[in-house]
């Protein structure tokens, strides 16, 4: 917990456009946990967090506080503490963008087939998922950071004898229309001792999650089950005055968490910490496997991974990522000051679009807008303020290839855009990819460029 809280402070500093603080309200239910235990836990939480510029925890009377207005009247006592919210997909993309700008070779749409140790090097077989033509890559070390596929990669594709396993746990979220006014989040305690978060989402929606369901199937895409949706809705209805049901759900998303198997009987009790296993049986060619972990400590995990590999890479720099801003995070004067400057420089964006774009791109917004002086300079609008200029930036700088990339992985504008607009965007991306491919071919006929 201490490491996670320290990392939270570092992420606030290096990605202030993506990471922002929030107040979390925890309504107290005596039957779940005694009040003294909750208060003691939050006091320890404050001590471990240290000074990060966030408000301390405290107790509140829900009957008299505006924070209690959305809740059922029988909930009279609660606690409040500070934590942070991050757009996880944007954080992932910007780490890849940062790595690429420092020399990493990012290969989107490729599949790892397997690897063998040969002549003091790893020889890995990779294929492009479009043309399915395999090729080889040589490396001095191999890091297995394949998440839910970590065991498959370890045993089936690398042939390791290491029998360390993870337990796959499915977590699902639902998004419903906004349940309440205000920027506060809520933490709901269940009788099964799991926690459900209720968080303002994309201004007009509320995010509810997550579940913890042991997954025995193969790794791969998963969906929220009707039972999970019912579980989340029932939890909210136990606490909030405004009821929700499956009919209110606008969107769901799910994923598999590869948690380190510590022989816990319950999925909720599995360790969220990370474990690094180094196979150096062949001293010349190490294999490092990453098990478990969570988003808050991803940067520290990466540092520890490189420390494990340092004997094979003596020229590695000392750790430096704790103080270097991620792309767009170098906000002069802080978030509020930079947002005001964006609204002054490009008033035609409007306040809502300016806020969305600053949160997504930070100082890189200038590369998105380019030389535009009015809305028409940004090109065709596909809906919800998404323009051709922004789409082209995502393709050029962030490897976007499909409408799903743009609307869901790189933004959440899919919540606001029509099916017809999404289809138009898909057509534009497909035609642009064809033109780009043709233009890269020697002696190719060049078609008309999109203005």
Task: Report on this structure.
This protein has 451 residues and is α+β, with helices and mostly antiparallel strands. It has twelve helices and 17 strands. It has helices at residues 2-14, 35-49, 88-101, 150-157, 226-239, 298-309, 335-345, 351-361, 365-369, 388-398, 403-409, 419-440, and strands at residues 19-27, 58-61, 77-86, 110-118, 121-128, 134-139, 142-144, 166-177, 185-189, 195-201, 205-209, 213-214, 251-260, 274-279, 287-292, 381-383, 386-387. Strands 1, 2, 3, 8, 9, 10, 11, 12 and 13 form a nine-stranded mixed beta sheet that branches. Strands 4-5-6 form a three-stranded antiparallel beta sheet. Strand 10 (195-201) and strand 11 (205-209) form a beta hairpin. Helix 7 (335-345) packs across helix 8. The radius of gyration is 24 Å and the shape is globular.
Strand content: 15-25%
- Rg, Å, rounded: 24 Å
| Separation, N- and C-terminal Cα atoms | 51 Å
**Unreliable runs:** 443-451
Q: What string gives the helices and strands in order?
A: HEHEEHEEEEHEEEEEHEEEHHHHEEHHH
């Amino acid at each position: 917990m201490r490491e996670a809280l320290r990392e939270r402070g570092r992420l606030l500093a290096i990605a202030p456009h993506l990471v922002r603080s929030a107040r979390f309200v925890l309504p107290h239910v005596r039957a779940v946990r005694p009040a003294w235990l909750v208060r003691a836990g939050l006091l320890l939480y404050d001590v471990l967090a240290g000074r990060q510029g966030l408000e301390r925890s405290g107790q509140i009377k829900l009957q008299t506080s505006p924070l209690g207005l959305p809740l059922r009247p029988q909930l009279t006592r609660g606690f409040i503490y500070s934590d942070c919210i991050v757009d996880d997909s944007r954080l992932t993309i910007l780490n890849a963008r940062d790595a690429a700008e420092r020399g990493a070779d990012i290969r989107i749409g490729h599949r790892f087939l397997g690897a063998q140790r040969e002549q003091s090097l790893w020889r890995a077989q990779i294929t492009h998922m479009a043309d399915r033509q395999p090729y080889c890559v040589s490396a001095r070390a191999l890091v297995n950071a394949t998440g839910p596929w970590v065991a498959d990669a370890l045993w089936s594709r690398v042939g390791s004898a290491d029998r360390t396993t993870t337990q796959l746990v499915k977590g699902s979220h639902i998004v419903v229309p906004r349940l309440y006014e205000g920027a506060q989040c809520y933490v709901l305690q269940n009788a099964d001792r799991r926690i459900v978060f209720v968080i303002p989402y994309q201004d007009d929606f509320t995010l509810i999650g997550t579940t913890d369901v042991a997954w025995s199937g193969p790794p791969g895409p998963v969906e929220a089950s009707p039972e999970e949706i019912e579980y989340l809705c029932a939890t909210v209805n136990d606490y909030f005055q405004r009821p929700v049901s499956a009919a209110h759900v606008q969107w769901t998303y799910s994923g598999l968490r590869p948690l380190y198997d510590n022989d816990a009987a319950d999925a909720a009790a599995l360790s969220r910490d990370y474990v690094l296993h180094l196979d150096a049986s062949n001293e010349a060619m190490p294999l490092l496997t990453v098990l478990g972990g969570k988003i808050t400590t991803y940067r520290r995990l990466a540092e520890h991974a490189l420390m494990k590999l340092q004997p094979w890479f003596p020229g590695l720099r000392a750790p430096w990522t704790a103080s270097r801003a991620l792309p767009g995070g170098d906000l002069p004067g802080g978030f509020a000051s930079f947002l005001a400057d964006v609204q002054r420089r490009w008033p035609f964006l409007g306040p809502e679009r300016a806020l969305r774009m600053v949160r997504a791109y930070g100082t890189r917004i200038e590369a998105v807008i380019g030389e535009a002086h009015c809305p028409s300079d940004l090109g065709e609008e596909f809906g919800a303020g998404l323009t051709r200029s922004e789409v082209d930036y995502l393709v050029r700088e962030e490897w976007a290839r499909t409408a799903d990339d743009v609307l869901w992985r790189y933004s959440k504008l899919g919540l606001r855009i029509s099916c017809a607009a999404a289809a138009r965007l898909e057509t534009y991306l497909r035609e642009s990819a064809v033109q780009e491919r043709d233009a890269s071919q020697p002696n190719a006929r060049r078609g008309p460029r999109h203005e």
